[in-house]
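Need residues for this backbone.
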């Protein structure tokens, strides 16, 4: 989505009643009274110290003798370049806190962003009203025992003043961790033939392996995260997620090469030719890094080439009625640059030629046998603003050149909820109708980003009744997740977080109670019980676009006879070759594209016995591929129930 994916706080601009909140102010030196010169005791200037000064002018101070004077030259999209941070405050994980500060701007256009450290929780920019002192308020759920309040102040070149900060909590009862996941609990989707994954980030790591068997990094793989400084690639954060997935044999989806957000800010001012050179270098850097040399650098099973191609393309313009990237330094602004490759890549000019060229470049850098290319977009489930129609136009163009392997679509709560007065049953059928449209392409589908809010009742009205909101979140999981999980074209679903620190924590979309660490009913009673213990969901045979894929749908290139017997099997199977194949290699994959076995075949060997139980294979479909030079042959192997 447009907002940063670690976004978890909904800021509210409010005028608090006299007397304020009822608990003690946790902020030291809240009025900036203590300090020498332009320094403030108990506060640190992490960035932009020259723009953060003390003022004693009467019209610029709300109370006492001093206030904070903010005068930034303006860093659009990089408000952290001017940043003030409080000393650490003791907090109880899972408890709710409210931070307030009074602000007044010299003119319209000023704004402030609240965040926390070290385990960052972000809120979007909030306006600082001009000419009148107004109390700005943010509420968040603590995810650390010591929390710093960070004020990002550098977005605009408008002078404003801040005074009288306060941080309080209304939670009088400390949270107690009441639940531990069993050490031997396997992922929910084990043996289901589909994956159920979740994002992997600092806030989402605990117990991930006990619930999920697929990994997508939340922010670590985005271009703006990896190459903050031009020419300096930092893969350290994403390496942790990749290594975790490889160690556990979980499929990994890289998120994302190209997008209209969270792109390097140094990129936008460049010429088209310079941007193309940087895009090529970016693709090459990712391909070179994930070279299979270690768990942290294991090759990528899935790669999102382009994200939100209709809603938020990297075009640097007002894309009404979709995104407006005209003032977004993070937008990349390289759609026109990609269009300049039409002649070189043999692409027909058109509205979406830049997407075709992006995928053609990706095919050059990422071997199609190892890495499946994914397209990602939201509102595809509803065709809002004709997104589904446009998405399928793009898919048709990509399929014409066998460029896309997997169709990805998001299922965030604000796209899957029922907005009209019709029945929930009719709305579910409406959502499924658009999944059916995607399935008609014959390509496998993946739900790339799913969450369901847990703060409302069955009319989507916010409620404080815990039982009501838990019940409705569970019902929505049964309705929406259930439809997607049981659609035969869907090969896997990725939740966009399950713990607090979730980007929709303000909507209580997380599945673990942050106070007790207990599973909410949508997780405990539905996913971890009904789905885990339910039947294996239906799954179509599907053909990846890549013509040299090792999986189902690949070309038969070897001319010699290749057989598997018995097939289906319950235990052993034998691979028979018509003639010896010097230098050949056998590889075994599951339906999710994970490599389970790779072994050389002797130069004179024509029989290879495979003990499937010893390899940990359970009931399901697998693929055996024989490689010999530049030729191969793939066979479908079925392991029957015992």
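Answer:
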């Amino acid at each position: 989505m447009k907002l940063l994916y670690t976004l978890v706080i909904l800021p509210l601009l409010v005028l608090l009643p006299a007397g304020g909140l009822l608990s003690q102010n946790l902020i030291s030196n809240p009025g900036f009274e203590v300090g020498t010169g332009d320094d403030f005791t108990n506060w640190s200037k992490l960035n932009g110290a020259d723009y953060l000064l003390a003022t004693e002018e009467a019209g610029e101070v709300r109370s006492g003798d001093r206030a904070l004077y903010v005068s930034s030259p303006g860093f659009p999209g990089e408000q952290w370049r001017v940043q003030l941070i409080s000393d650490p405050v003791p907090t109880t994980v899972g408890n709710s806190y409210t931070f307030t500060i009074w602000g007044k701007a010299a003119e319209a256009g000023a704004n402030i962003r609240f965040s926390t450290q070290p385990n960052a929780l972000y809120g979007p920019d909030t306006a600082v009203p001009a000419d009148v002192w107004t109390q700005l308020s943010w509420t968040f759920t603590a995810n650390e025992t010591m929390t710093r309040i960070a004020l990002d102040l550098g977005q605009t070149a408008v002078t404003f003043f801040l005074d009288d900060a306060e941080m309080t909590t209304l939670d009088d009862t400390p949270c107690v961790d009441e639940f531990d996941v069993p050490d031997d609990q396997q992922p929910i989707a084990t043996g289901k033939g589909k994956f159920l994954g979740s994002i992997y980030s600092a806030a989402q790591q605990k117990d991930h392996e006990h619930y999920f068997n697929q990994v997508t990094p939340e922010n670590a793989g985005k271009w703006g995260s990896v190459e903050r400084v031009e020419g300096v690639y930092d893969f350290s954060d994403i390496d942790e997620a990749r290594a975790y997935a490889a160690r556990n044999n979980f499929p990994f989806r890289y998120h994302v090469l190209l997008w209209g957000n969270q792109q390097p800010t140094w990129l936008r001012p460049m010429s088209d030719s310079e941007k193309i050179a940087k895009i090529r270098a970016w693709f090459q850097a990712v391909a070179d890094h994930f070279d299979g040399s270690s768990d942290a650098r294991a090759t990528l099973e899935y790669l999102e080439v382009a994200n939100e191609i209709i809603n938020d393309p990297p075009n640097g313009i007002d894309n009404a009625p979709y995104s407006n990237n005209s003032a977004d330094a993070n937008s990349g602004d390289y759609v026109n640059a990609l269009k300049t490759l039409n002649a070189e890549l043999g692409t027909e000019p058109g509205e979406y030629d830049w997407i075709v060229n992006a995928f053609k470049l990706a095919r050059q850098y990422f071997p199609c046998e190892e890495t499946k290319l994914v397209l990602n977009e939201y509102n595809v489930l509803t065709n809002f603003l004709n997104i589904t129609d446009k998405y399928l136009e793009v898919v048709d163009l990509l399929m014409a050149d066998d460029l896309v392997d997997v169709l990805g679509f998001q299922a965030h709560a604000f796209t899957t909820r029922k907005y009209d007065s019709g029945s929930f049953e009719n709305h579910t059928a409406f959502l499924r109708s658009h999944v059916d449209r995607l399935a008609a392409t014959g390509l496998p589908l993946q739900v790339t980003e799913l969450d369901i809010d847990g703060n409302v009742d069955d009319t989507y009205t916010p409620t404080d009744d815990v039982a009501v909101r838990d019940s409705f979140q569970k019902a929505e999981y049964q309705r929406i997740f259930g439809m997607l999980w049981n659609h035969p074209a869907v090969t896997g679903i990725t939740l966009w977080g399950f713990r607090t620190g979730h980007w929709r924590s303000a909507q209580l979309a997380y599945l673990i109670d942050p106070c007790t660490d207990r599973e909410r009913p949508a997780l405990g009673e539905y996913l971890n019980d009904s789905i885990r213990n339910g039947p294996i969901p239906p799954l179509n045979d599907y053909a990846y676009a890549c013509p040299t894929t090792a999986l189902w749908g690949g070309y038969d290139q070897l001319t010699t006879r290749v057989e598997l017997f018995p097939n289906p099997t319950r235990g052993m199977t034998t691979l028979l070759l018509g003639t010896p194949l010097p230098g050949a290699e056998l590889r075994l994959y599951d339906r999710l594209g994970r490599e389970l076995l790779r072994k050389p075949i002797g130069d004179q060997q024509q029989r290879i016995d495979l003990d499937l139980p010893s390899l940990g294979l359970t009931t399901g479909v697998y693929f055996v591929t024989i490689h010999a030079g530049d030729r191969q042959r793939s066979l479908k192997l079925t392991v029957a129930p015992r």
